[in-house]
Amino acid sequence: MDPLERYSRQMILPGWGRERQQRLGQKTAVVIGCGALGSHVASHLARAGVGRLVLADRDFVEWHNLPRQALYAEADAAAGVPKAVAAARRLRQINSLVQIEEHVVDVNPDTVEPLIAGADVVMDGADNFEVRYLVNEACVKHGIPWVYGGVLGTYGLSAAILPGETPCLRCLLGPLPPPGAVPTCETAGVLGPAVAVIAALEVTEGLKILLERHAELLRSLVMVDLWNGDFERAQTQKGQTRCPVCDEGRYELLEAEQGSMAAVLCGRAAVQITPRPRQSLDLTALAERLTVVGRVDANEYVLRLDVEGVQLAIFADGRTIVKGTDDPVLARVLYARYVGS
Ligand SMILES: [Zn+2]
Predict the structure, then answer these.
(1) Catalytic annotation on 185?
(2) Is the N or C terminus of the chain more exposed, i.e. has fewer CB atoms within 10 Å?
């Protein structure tokens, strides 16, 4: 059977064809975050036949993800499977021709550059601005095109960013908003179909980049309020003001020393503890030790401990998300008490 047969309906689109389909099959896309946006984006890219798909996500599937996170099922939430792992497993069933690489990892100044190395496009599936601005700096620094997308409530935005050609995210949205200044999906909610629309906009621009059809990029910030039916598109072009990132090459987030080991996850009532250096935990042994203190649920990637009114999700590299508090001091105390200092 012709391996390209499955792509026949997209190859007959104007300007696509076998030759560009084959070229798409040699390209790499990196999806940062595999939540609602990221799982829709990854699904479309895998189905379309990108060559290599790199998935990065720090969290695991929970029940409240299922209404909009396209790649996950109830069994993933029940078992607490990391999103990158569950997504990769599902995508391999969908298109075995795609080389899929999953990373259960926090995207931060230490990890972002290795993750995007060799990418032809980077796709935004992040759930917070700090990660997006970090990805923006890394992509501008390495000259890698990337596609921004964000959804809140019934509203969303998307824009493709070509370093050196179009404004970057810092040009478009101004300085990084301080923590707590913008609502999050946890506080404002999110409409599943609005995610699907923004993901579709993102992937369409991403495909133009991967198919080397840059002339057809929208070069716009597209804004959609799906509930009200408002669709707006603003042309983006470099303005008069100089941008610290794309004009001056100042990568403040990328070059920042890693902050404290405890970071409050914005709007989440959760704190992430990142031990340095990385550790290598034996989750099975730890699970045995912890069953006497609280309810333990473990798989090969993550151990969940319900204790003292919070939940600790402990990953094999020692990284731990303490859910149910936004107090970094308490989170560190609990981490020291149950995981070790
Ligand atoms: Zn800029």
Answers:
(1) yes
(2) N
